[in-house]
Specification:
With 421 residues, the chain is an all-alpha fold. It has 15 helices and no strands. The two termini are 21 Å apart.
């Protein structure tokens, strides 16, 4: 693995750490403002929105410039997001600014990895990325719990004595910690070397970009391998975003935990994902990725077991197991999608298509969850509906993949190093 790849890993860790801590801090801010319960899933919607709206643009943008430079701009937008939160801007708007940075960052980051490495190393690289990302999710969620805990407001005293234009909140010190993390990630991006990959110049006319993006989207969906991997990752992203909020609500309502304690429990899921990601990167090849589809069905069937758990210990055990299955499943499927996307399109454009579909799935699932919360749907009904949706969708995907194999329309990828267009 080249040194630049490990620099990308480090930046990914810091940025993702701050992203997940930011979500917990923003949720605490919403609670502090006495907002309605349905506002919390809307926060995730605001973060995800730009992934979908700007999908036709961010791929060409990532390919138009050295990707390290694009990552600098993206992380700087996250710095601006925390600054907006500090001066009292609506939390959803501040989180939307961070989402804008994340939407620009994703195709540059994954595109750079695809440029740096041959196809046979993509599962291994995704194992590293998934392990680092989930470690950051784990620690970031725990960090968020610390940043909203009772120890942090004490640190606000010297800040409040200064003549800074900060908003009236007990979360100022936590926000400043996030500001420093994002600033560090921004500065580290300056050390990422250019991969040397260059693509044909593309116009930025919105109509042309949209038409080309629609064509690229259709190209991946009509490709059997692209369809399979994108269906699975789109479902899993929507599931993961919604499950994150369901776990928080479950821990508070069913286990009687405070928000900061629920954040720690939520982060425990990431331990399992790390284990699963490590095992997948070590034992699963790119060719074997489609054989893991039954694991997705198992994930859906395991979710209702949450209702039988009444202690934090068994909750942690269940979440580790669910996370392990998810990590072992998603890493090879993500690598398969990256491989196929880069084969059919360019690195940045394929990641933009992937991001659009995965985050559109998140928007849909979060919107449904927000509506259900606004309608005051009981938690146990939400969990059963969630499990049923995941299980049925995975069953349909599994059956369709088997039909493609029987008809000779599904060819597993070879692992020869691909050439960049």
């Amino acid at each position: 693995m080249p040194l630049t790849f490990f620099v990308v890993l480090t930046v990914q860790f810091i940025s993702t750490l701050a992203d997940n801590a930011l979500l917990i801090v923003v949720i605490a801010r919403v609670i502090e403002l006495s907002a309605d319960a349905w506002v919390i899933p809307v926060l995730k919607l605001s973060f995800t929105l730009f992934y979908v709206v700007l999908a036709p643009l961010v791929g060409p943008l990532a390919d138009a410039f050295p990707k390290g430079r694009v990552m600098v701009w993206a992380n700087f937008l996250k710095v601006c997001a925390v600054a907006l939160l500090l001066i009292g801007i609506d939390p959803a708007l501040a989180l939307a600014c961070a989402g804008l940075g994340a939407a620009i960052y994703a195709p540059a980051k994954y595109g750079l990895v695809t440029e740096l490495l041959p196809a046979q190393d993509l599962v291994k690289a995704n194992g590293y990325l998934e392990g680092i990302t989930v470690s950051a999710v784990l620690l970031g969620t725990a960090l968020g719990g610390i940043l909203i805990s009772t120890v942090m407001p004490v640190l606000d005293v010297p800040i409040r004595m200064a003549s800074w234009h900060v908003t009236s909140t007990t979360l100022v010190a936590g926000m400043l910690c996030l500001l420093m993390l994002y600033a560090t990630a921004t500065l580290m991006n300056l050390g990422i070397k250019d991969s040397g990959a260059r693509y044909a110049a593309q116009g930025i006319h919105p109509v042309r970009l949209t038409r080309r993006f629609i064509h690229e989207n259709r190209l991946l969906w009509r490709d059997p391998m692209g369809w399979l991997s994108m269906s699975v990752t789109t479902l899993l992203w929507g599931v993961g975003a919604t499950l994150q909020l369901i776990v928080l609500r479950w821990a508070i309502e069913s286990l009687g935990l405070e928000l900061n304690q629920a954040a720690y429990l939520q982060g425990i899921t990431a331990v399992g994902v790390i284990i699963g990601a490590i095992l997948a990167s070590r034992y699963v090849s790119l060719m074997a990725a489609p054989k893991l589809l039954p694991l997705g069905l198992m994930l859906g069937l395991m979710v209702p077991f949450m209702l039988a758990v009444d202690s934090a210990f068994w909750a942690a055990a269940l979440l580790i197991l669910v996370g392990g299955l998810a990590g072992y499943f998603v890493v090879p499927m993500n690598a398969l999608l990256q491989y196929r996307g880069c084969t059919l399109l360019t690195a940045g454009r394929s990641i933009a298509v992937q991001g659009f579909n995965e985050n559109a799935g998140m928007l849909l699932m979060l919107a449904l969850y927000a509506l259900a919360t606004a309608a005051q749907t009981p938690l146990h009904i939400l969990i059963w509906c969630f499990a049923l949706l995941v299980s049925l969708t995975m069953a349909v995907i599994l059956q369709a993949q088997r039909k493609l194999v029987r008809n000779g329309q599904f060819d597993l990828p070879c692992t020869a190093a691909h050439q960049l267009p």
